[in-house]
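Suppose you are handed a protein chain with no further information: no name, no annotation, nothing but its sequence. What can you learn? This example shows the usual starting point.
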Amino acid sequence: MSERKSWSVKRAEVMGRPGAGVAYEAARLRFELGAAVRERREALGITQKQLAEAAGLQQPAVARFEAGGTMPTIMMLERLAQALGLRLNVKLQPLDHAS
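A reasonable first move is to predict its three-dimensional structure. Written in structure tokens, the prediction is:
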């Protein structure tokens, strides 16, 4: 029987593969964007269906987005931001200043 690896060892192995860092960052971005939309929607007290209607989307699309399952286009982010009473602000920062 093989010895079990700790999560940190397994993660280091996976992250050492070519392209893994890019995929990880894309997943992180999807998750953070989805969480921000969900938090704002909940703060406004509206449902996914109500948000979808206001943004011209279908409710399952909002659910997938909030779960981090899809990478949105800028246009989709603008539609969601407007429906949430927000302004989309995209800026590029040097890597040493990005969080």
